Amino acid sequence: MIQEHKWRFLDDMITRTGKSLDDLMNIIVLKENEIRESYSESLDLGRNDLAKMMVLDGVFMIELFRKVGRLINTHQDDPIFRMVWISPFLTRDLLRIENQIPFVVLKTLFEESRTGDHTLQSLILEFFNYMVDRPKEALQNYENLDGKHLLDFFRKSFISTNRKSVDSEATDKPNPSLKLIQPATKLVIAGVKFKANPQADSFLDVKFQNGVLSIPQINMDDFYSSFFLNCMAFEQCYFHCSKDITTYVVFMGCLMNTSTDVSLLSQNKIIENYSYYLEHS
Fold it and tell me: 63 and 112: one domain?
């Protein structure tokens, strides 16, 4: 069904911009080598078939971001927006590691069909912000952020910009010192206090100072569960990538060793959707 919507969204862009499918394919063909080099395995597709696939998938994403951002008109009966199950399905599916296409494809198609002053980066972050609910002002810090693909771009938007480089400290494994972190209940017995930080720009903004462990609030749901799994898969497969998300997941896993630990973090407003976590842990 989604394949049918891809062609429909492509028709919408062609009608609005006057650019044909061949026009868009010819532009993407120029980046064929860069596209093929982005994949770990050789793509068993000819030049035109590869370009058509990139255009179809890329235009669908871009038009989806524009429609949700209200930059272009959306029909009131459009099933993409009328069927309640599709939206959460799409937000997860777009970030699945096996569904990624090179970010350069998205940037190229976006520029060829530009409408208004919005950047591709701002539209992407606004689209996913329905799921992660970050402060709007925080999204302005990533207007010039790049990535290898959509998953990598969104992943990087959570990584602190005060790092020398988001990929400059890549390692094979998460920090070995994480193995020394005790579960939340044992840390409380040792005198550590837990504090939620609801205003944090990123769930990675964990701080420990004067015996207080400050952790940003996070809603443990299907979206974050899927996002974390795909980020960890990417960070482990791509050697030159920092391991920020993997380290965070391992850290939180150390804290939440039992349901009592999870309950403690929930009582301190650090974890929301407590029942979901227990069902999926």
Answer: yes
SS3 for the chain is CHHHHHHHHHHHHHHHHCCCHHHHHHHHHCCHHHHHHCCCCCCCCCHHHHHHHHHHHHHHHHHHHHHHCCCCCCCCCCHHHHCCCHHHHHHHHCCCHHHCCEHHHHHHHHHHCCCCCCCHHHHHHHHHHHHHCCCHHHHHHHCCCCCCEHHHHHHHCCCCCCCCCCCCCCCCCCCHHHHHCCCHHHHHHCCCEEEEECCCCCCCCCEEECCEEEEECEECCHHHHHHHHHHHHHHHHCCCCCCHHHHHHHHHHHHCCCHHHHHHHHHCCCEECHHHHHHHC
Same domain, 59 and 130: yes
Does residue 168 sit within a domain? no
What string of pLDDT tens digits covers the 281 residues of the chain? 677 888 988 998 999 999 999 999 999 999 999 999 888 788 888 889 999 999 999 999 999 999 888 888 777 667 666 665 567 788 899 999 999 999 999 999 999 988 778 899 999 998 998 888 777 777 777 878 999 999 999 999 999 654 544 444 444 555 655 567 899 999 999 999 999 987 788 899 999 999 999 999 998 888 999 999 999 999 998 878 889 999 999 999 999 989 899 999 999 999 887 555 555 55
Are residue 200 and residue 275 in the same domain, yes or no? yes
- Domain encompassing residue 243: 176-280
Domain end among 121, 156, 191: 156
Give the count of domains, the chain.
2
Let me know whether 13 and 144 are in one domain.
yes
| One domain for residues 137 and 40 | yes
